[in-house]
Amino acid sequence: MPILRRAVERVLDARAAAAEDVASARRRDPASLSGAQMALTSPGLHAIWSHRAAHALWTRGHRLPALVLAQTSRAVTGVEIHPGAVIGRRFFIDHGMGVVIGETAEVGDDVMLYHGVTLGGRSMARTKRHPTVRDNVVIGAGARVLGPVEIGEDAQVGANAVVVGDVPAGSIAVGVPARVRTGAAVPEAHMDPAIWI
Asked: DSSP string spanning 99-152?
């Protein structure tokens, strides 16, 4: 009976997480028509749901099945998330296509990425080589965040920025290479870091 109870709890937890993801996506996507529309048509949601399953396999030592699932998801959604990456709650990728998240990346809660974002490495060493993105971060389309850098809470990265150093909490990074502007954006603009270019 305990095995059945654990299985039911896992299903209920997964259902609650999926509902939370859909609600978060609806808040962040002005084109959203309904929760059902988001659940059925959002490649960003499909990618994170596949990642959760792949990550569970990865952490249990089932590395090959995890990688196969991740690559299948990549083929379907255009989003590549390594199964080793740690992703928080209410994560949303708008549009999805071209996003790449590396193996040692860590992403906090309530993070939003636009299409074409790379959370990549700069080293071939088998160590922490991908970014850590804290809670409530927005990263604009085409941005590259490279290496074991940290993007602080409530920070924003502008579209097409190339970030190779830490970004303090509450600041904005824009340009190539990215320069940090201090002082948070106005709250209404938090959804569109392209405003700061």
From this structure: -EE-TT-EE-TT-EE-TT-EEE-S--SSSS-S-EE-TT-EE-TT-EEESS-EE-
Profile the chain (197 residues) by mean pLDDT over runs of 10 residues.
78 83 86 86 92 96 97 95 96 92 96 95 90 96 96 95 95 92 60 51
Q: Is 46 a catalytic residue?
A: no
Q: Amino acid identity of 86?
A: V
**Other residues' Cβ atoms within 10 Å of the Cβ of residue 148:** 17
Tokens 């948070």, located at residue: 184
- Confidence (pTM): 0.85
* Inter-residue contact 43 to 98 (CB < 8 Å): no
Q: Which residue of the set 46, 51, 115, 130 is catalytic?
A: 115
